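Notebook entry, structure prediction.
Reason for the run: the old model in the group folder had no record of what sequence produced it. Starting over properly, with the input documented here first.
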Amino acid sequence: MGTVLIVKLAHLADLHLGFRQYTRQTAQGINQREADVANAFRRAVDGVVAAAPDVVLVAGDIFHTVRPTNPAILDSFNQFRRLHEAMPHVPIIVIAGNHDTPRSVETGTILTLFEALPNIHAIVRGPTRLSFEDLDLSVLCVPDQAIRASPRPAMEPEPGTRWNVLVTHGEVAGVVPGDRSFVEYGGALVEPGDLHADEWSYVALGHYHVAQQVTPNAWYAGSLEYVSTNPWGELGEAARLGWGHPKGWLLATLREGNAAVEFMPIEMARRHLDLSPIDGQGLEAAELDALITQRVDGIADGVDDQVIRQVVTNVTRGVARELNHAAIRDLKVRALHYHLDIRRPVVHQEVGVAAPGQRRTLDETVADYLARRELTPGVERDALVALGKHYLEQVEREQAEG
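New structure, fully documented this time:
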């Protein structure tokens, strides 16, 4: 066997096939967002085939649920078969993420279906090391269930192999920003030291939905589509990290001493737009209506079939009721999803004797309670608090919109 000087890896993650959102359906009766997510995977497969990598890595959460829809199962099988047929000698490695892993070990997982295809390795339960002698490559696969095991498996490279790659699915501690509202709930927490990242040629991570470099050779690929309840948080995080195009996959080229990583964007079925917020302090309903119309009219190519949020702060209940809800309903019909995010003013009161203070809001009260209550083993406190606040905000916004 000759020395392999370069190895190219296609790194995908968080496909979330079968994800459903909003109510619109395609002409075939499939949820429109489910169809968008499937199309994103097809485009990613097109891009991977064009890049001609030596290995394909899919770092977990292939499906959105452990019991995906029949269309999602059929389409995913066809796409993985297409990937294999286009590159018959390229290993395709798929590991299970938290969305793919049943709570009961006796329950099977649909990922084993892909093993019916040649050269596809589906790693579901325990840590598994795969060796590819022709590439002088060793790949250690640590799926979600293995990350949660006690004791946790040692994630260390194989001695005597030129290229060592780690594929795992979880939340690396310290990577996720303070705003956790857009972070997927349920990922296993991984301490940076557990990865031994500097000892690997490349570490392919899944779970975090925005592409991000964790160490010089460890990366999250991000999701291929917006597949969380808070795409606005993903938009903001992608902007903070400087991604002009927030969704795609990674092409990693391993050379002696470094991993050159290229972000490979894919075309989205539709845009997700977070319009400039409006401060409603002191404004009447007609004035807010005019500003909302102005924001919508400023959207390039229009509002039709897009996913849009408009935040409006400092709006009293009375003003919210007097808004032009007929016009708002028209926007909701034209867009795939138009979310008018109306937020009430922060209420101040006097506390004690002439001591100005701020009354605690309901979400602050709930957050404080969740921060102190005893948790079921395996439940992450930060994620639970963020989820509680998210549901409270959703109810309040729906009430404000009438």
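Summary: The longest strand covers residues 248-255.
The old model has been moved to the deprecated folder.
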